[in-house]
Design a protein that fits this description.
heterodimer, A: 351 residues, alpha/beta, Rossmann fold, four-stranded antiparallel β-sheet, 12 helices, 14 strands, elongated, B: 235 residues
Chain lengths: 351, 235
Amino acid sequence: MIEVQNLTKQYGAKKAVDNLTFTVNDGEILGFLGPNGAGKSTTMNMLTGYISSTSGKALINGVDILDDPINAKKNIGYLPEIPPLYLDMTVKDYLNFIYDLKKCKIPRKAHLEDVCGLVKITDVYNRIIRNLSKGYKQRVGLAQALIGNPPILILDEPTVGLDPKQIIEIRTLIKKLGKKHTVILSSHILPEIQAVCDRVIIINRGKIAADDTTENLTKNITADHRLIARIDGAREEVLKTIKGISGVVSVTADMEREKGVYDYEIETKEDADIRRELFKRIAARNWIILGLKTSEMTLEDIFLKITMDDSFEIKMKKTSDEKSEKTEKAVPADTESEENDKKEESKEAEE
Amino acid sequence: MGAIFRRELKAYFTSPIAYIFITVFYLYTATYFVNYNVYYGLTDMSYVFQCAFNILMILLPLLTMRLFTEEKRQRTDQCLLTAPVNLFAVVMGKFLAATCVFLCAIAIYAVYAIVLFGLSGYLAWATVIGNLAALVLLGASFTAIGVFVSAMTESQVVAAIVSFIIIMFFFMIDMLSGIVQIEWLREIMASLGFYSRYSEFSTGLFSLPNVIFFVSIIFIFNFLTVRALEKRRWA
């Protein structure tokens, strides 16, 4: 179990990680999602004791990583963003070194064989790491994290640089590992998180932007109903007709797909299902609907919305720091208006 | 500590660096040995011991420069620092590995001594042993300095040059003390000199303060290395 309380990392004036609080339960696979530079790696580095936190706490199975680093680290297997490989060693020597470094008690030969079999590097066991492909290097990195069977695995972008087949293999492996281990996995690739994780934390500019199960997250966001219809018919006329349907909030036409065929994006009121009505009206004018689909937001859209759009809010419990941020934002606006007032006053005085 | 020590030592001997280090050291000291002891027939080995100072000043920074810089460049330090080992063990592992290569190099002095004994039938064994001990202390001090500097930077070249400058500083400081007018400063500067302390050994004086001085230098720089690594975590 990992408990993170108000974890903050400050680099000079910049807060790389700002007041993170979350808990990861035993046997949970947590996805850590965010754009580059959001603070994912910094958070992971703090959890593993590579760097210290400016303030806040990280408890690994109840042990504070800063108070008792050695006992806390015993519980963690860490695969950093760039796998920490000694390029001049063979896989065999490297894994033996890690085994010694972690002071493992498990029978050496059997354990190393197990780990190699699990990540499928047995066939390169005697090769020098420098000569391995990116995919193999990544897997050796993963093997390194698995040595000693630590109950917690922290994996920073574990599928970067792998080919599609390997990605699927690693994902399956992580899912399998998730049954026995607690896993934190970071990524900026959404399908990966969707495929592997039970829960997602979206992190943006060092703050938690969302923390929920993958299903809930998509559910919450798709509250606004949207339809995309591909219709063969005169553009302006079609727009008018669609607008005439009750329940339609707005409609826009996309670029021309084929001659005279456009995609229309229709936003409707909640709970309004206009599909039947739409069909009837279009058919009545002798136009043809070539396609009709509800545009549910994917995790991708949610991610983009959360990370691109500051004004976007998700319908879910707001954490206290989000509120405080708002008040902070509100304050300078007030002072500005006060200043403006003062300027106006002074102008009046001059006049 | 053992794991890191073994890995480093193996890394030294799988790359050319240890061999080059040892070869250059052999060649350099052998020149002195052949010239003074074999050719001129001196039974006093103090020249051979003294010449080691200059060459080690250049060679040891080259031996230690990659110890921590490479870890940082390859990001393997993430593996060391997130493993359940304390920093002191990490530093000692690396320090001892470099010292071990250095010991392989100076082992040649035993060969010189035996050859000299064979040639002349006489050797001041106590002096030779005292000198060897001094050489070990000196080399370990240089190594500790080198390890410390390598923990401060990411570039091997910078690490080598800066360690050389620091060693140079300790080499020159007591010579420069003569031009300083302030007495307390002059005394401090004179007492920090590596060369005068080392050459006292080679004249046959085995003084405890000198031993304590070098041991302190080794301890201080290893301690500073631990602090430097610690500091990076807190930065």
